[in-house]
Fold this sequence. Notes:
Elements: H1 7-12, E1 20-23, E2 27-31, E3 41-45, H2 57-78, E4 82-86, E5 102-107, H3 124-133
Antiparallel strand pairs: 1-2, 2-3, 3-5, 4-5
The chain binds adenosine monophosphate and zinc ion.
Amino acid sequence: MRDDNCIFCKIAGGEIPTNAIYEDDDHKVILDMSPATRGHALILPKQHYKNIYEMPADKVGEAFKLAGRMAQTMTDKLKADGFNIVQNNNEIAGQTVFHFHIHLIPRYEGDGQVIPWKPKESTPEGLAEIRDLFQ
Ligand code: AMP
Ligand code: ZN
């Protein structure tokens, strides 16, 4: 499956040149053009899925399995001190390119980068109510 209007389909399919750091039959890993830190990369499945909701669970699993391996390799090669893995779905969650991708963000002491969220208060009742939704 491929979307002719999708930039990540064109990059993953090799129609648009990019800086790839890994490729296999199903994925291409490219350097982000506006990196959060040195080496910030994106895992792109070659198949077009708009977001995680549209992607079969086994494909999601394969992409995250690759994320685990990339975290190891990138941390070693880039001599990173830590690593963030981020995956955004829908505009409200910060998704700007609507082809599923996983952000691989090496972290360095003093890099000054913030992967943002604002912690809020919770109550025992509020947490229990959410937990009960899953029983
Ligand atoms: P998101 O906000 O999670 O959808 O992430 C989209 C990411 O894709 C951003 O970090 C952009 O900097 C990156 N990006 C967009 N277009 C390109 C491109 N042509 N090559 C590399 N990275 C891109
Ligand atoms: Zn696409």
